[in-house]
Amino acid sequence: MEHLLESLGRNMFAIFGLLALAGALFMVASKRAVHSVLGFLFAMLCVAGCYISLDAQFLGVAQILVYAGGIVVLFLFVVMLVELTKYKERDIFQNQSRLAIVAVLAGVGAFAAVFRRAFFGAASSDALVLRPELAKGLDVARQNAQAVSRGLFADYLLPFEILSVILLVALVGAVVLAKTERV
Amino acid sequence: MPPMTLLQTIVMGLIQIVAVLIVVFIMVPLLTFAERKVIGYAQVRLGATRTASGRKGFTASMNRGMWAMGKVPVLSFFRGLPVFIADAVKLITKEDIIPAKADRAVFTLAPILSVVAAFGVFAAIAYYPGVMFYMPKNWPLIGGLPFNGAIADVNVGLLFILGLASVGVYGIVLGAWASNSKYPLLGGLRSAAQIVSYEVPLTLSLLPAVILAGTLNFKNMSVILATGQGMSPLAVIPLFIGFFVYLTCGFAETNRVPFDLPEAETELVAGFHTEYSGMKFGFFYLAEYANMIVVSCLATAFFFGGYYLLPFGLQRIIPASVPFLGQPSFLFFMAKVSLILFAFIWVRATLPRYRYDQLMEVGWKYLIPLTLVNLFIAAVIRYAF
Questions:
Q1: In 10 A of CB B63, how many CB atoms?
Q2: Contact residues, A window 87-106, toward B, CB-based 8 Å cutoff
Q3: Cβ separation B109–A38 shorter than 8 A
Q4: Residue A89 reports pLDDT greater than 70
Q5: Secondary structure (3-state) at A1
Q6: Cβ of B170 and A57 within 8 Å?
Q7: Is A70 on the interface with B (CB under 8 A)?
């Protein structure tokens, strides 16, 4: 019993990862948009589970708070408002399967290039930290929030700010698109 | 003591979960009874005074006798209490109707999501700092193990609670959509907009407490905010403002009067649960009351002094050597939770419902700026004093 539980605990990451993949598959395959959103929600919750199984509790909970609690709700809101019949949904959302397969393959290729080292080569023993002196004396497993904030606001401040600018651009773009449509 | 094995951890966790569930399942029917009574007295009525048991029986004859003497049956104050058993039996045995054109799977999933989100939150709430008692030594497997005041001592407990609570909105939105009916859909859309809007000031109103305590752990936050270790006396100001903003947003999050627009019966029949019956409706009902208890627990722990007698760091006045009053106690926690639950019912009996545009105006134009200013004050106090 004890042995079984222990192996279960060790493989939690794989279990949640597979569940997340199943949720993503359901999202792609389901015919109704609301079911797709549900699959997406499930995948997001499982990704949060992955984070928590890696002792990154802050990240996992933030994942639930931001994605499951905020972004997917807005998706659902829009899907419910649009309220398409089954036939129309298939016409709009699922008529680009060839293009989608090409895009997915390209994405897989890109990720494979990134993860090649991790899968086949020797990974570096330490995480990439630009200013290690800031992380000194920090118990990362117990002080998740502090570790993340140091990463964001000290080590990777510039990428973080650039990312927020990209989000701002997306926001402005959305507003522009919505405005021009109405005229 | 040797470290607990995984099996022991899981068994103790299950025991604690069952204990918390029992307390909540006792509190919810008591709360419905209290609601009948308090609203009754607020409207100069008596509230529930009897359990209809036909013309025979002890209760019935007592009541008849008192009325015949021209007196209000004072003894029957608690005689309306057994109604909750009838309520529960009714909800469980009632026919479970699924509308013909509803999306069956989602229609079933919605109340489940609501209840899971509402009850999952109780895992991270600490009812007592540290160990409440130890299991008896002679019990197999779990003998001598500590029974903690919290099911799980999560180091980002507050975020965990906010995250799970924000998942609760799916129950309402999906239930509304799956009913495939006009009024539930309108109610669900309103509710989604309302809950997503009020989540922002709710979270922001808790941030001053986080800044002043310097941790996200539920238990540590509660203890620090009550005893005021390293906190300036000025910290009372942001906490006091935060408490009222939090309570306001809590009312909105739990869909209670004066923010119960999702189920405004004059406009939307019953809002998102119009098409629900039987235990599926019961789950929504249960989730609403469980959410009320959660909001009360959070308000108690962060703004009301939690397990200590005095809030806002005033506990410093009483030295820890004083028996009972100077010590943390489960009783203080429950008493304060009850007090805030009473406020929930009190407000319901007092205030009329907001109009929809007023609701949004209060949320976005007043509460969010107020919380931002409050956050600034808290940061200044933390930094400068």
A1: 18
A2: none
A3: yes
A4: no
A5: coil
A6: no
A7: yes
Asked if B212 and B381 count as a contact pair (C-beta separation under 8 A), the reply is: yes
Describe the crossing of helices A2-10 and B6-42 by its angle, rounded to 10 degrees.
80
CB neighbour class for B4 (10 Å; exposed up to 12, middle 13-18, buried from 19):
middle
Cβ-defined contact of B155 to A142 (cutoff 8 Å): yes
Q: Which residues of A touch B120 (CB under 8 A)?
A: none
Q: Check: CB of residue B139 under 8 Å from CB of residue B196.
A: no
ipTM greater than cut 0.95: no
Chain A residues 15-34 with a CB less than 8 Å from chain B: 32, 34
**DSSP character string of B105-123:** HHHHHHHHHHHHHHHHGGG
Which pLDDT does position A180 carry in this prediction?
A: 65
Give the residue from chain B lying closest to A141, CA to CA. B155
Average pLDDT over residues A102-111: 90
Q: Tell me how far apart the alpha carbons of residues B370 and B375 are, in angstroms, rounded to a whole number.
A: 9
What letter would DSSP give residue B81?
T
In Å, how far from its chain's centre is CA A50? 11
- Are A65 and B196 a contacting pair at CB < 8 A? no
Amino acid at A155: D
**Is residue A169 pLDDT above 90, yes or no?**
yes
Cβ-based contacts of A144 with chain B (< 8 Å): 155-156
**Chain A residue numbers touching B109 (CB-CB < 8 A):** 38
What amino acid is encoded at A76 in this protein? L
Residue A19 has pLDDT above 90, yes or no: yes
| pLDDT at A165 (0 to 100) | 93
The CA-atom distances, in angstroms, between B233 and each of A81, A163, B226, B230, B236 are 50, 40, 12, 10, 6
Q: Is the per-residue pLDDT at A90 higher than 60?
A: no
Q: How far is B200 from chain A (nearest CA, A)?
A: 10
E strands along B52-158, which residues?
A: 126-134, 146-150
Identify the H or E element spanning A20: helix A12-29
* pLDDT at B372 (0 to 100): 92
What do you get for the CA distance between the two ends of chain A, in Å?
67
Query: What pLDDT, on a 0 to 100 scale, did the predictor assign at position B371?
Result: 92
Q: Which of A30, A45, A46, A44 is nearest to A79 (CA)?
A: A30
Q: Do A5 and B6 touch (CB under 8 A)?
A: yes
Instruction: Kindly determine whether residue A34 and residue B6, on different chains, have CB atoms separated by under 8 Å.
Output: no
Which tokens hold the place of B257?
A: 């009067």
Query: How far A142 CA lies from chain B's nearest CA (Å)?
Result: 7
pLDDT averages per 10-residue partition of chain B, 385 residues? 74 87 87 86 79 62 71 62 77 82 84 90 84 78 77 83 86 83 81 84 89 83 80 82 89 81 69 79 87 90 81 72 75 88 89 83 88 91 81
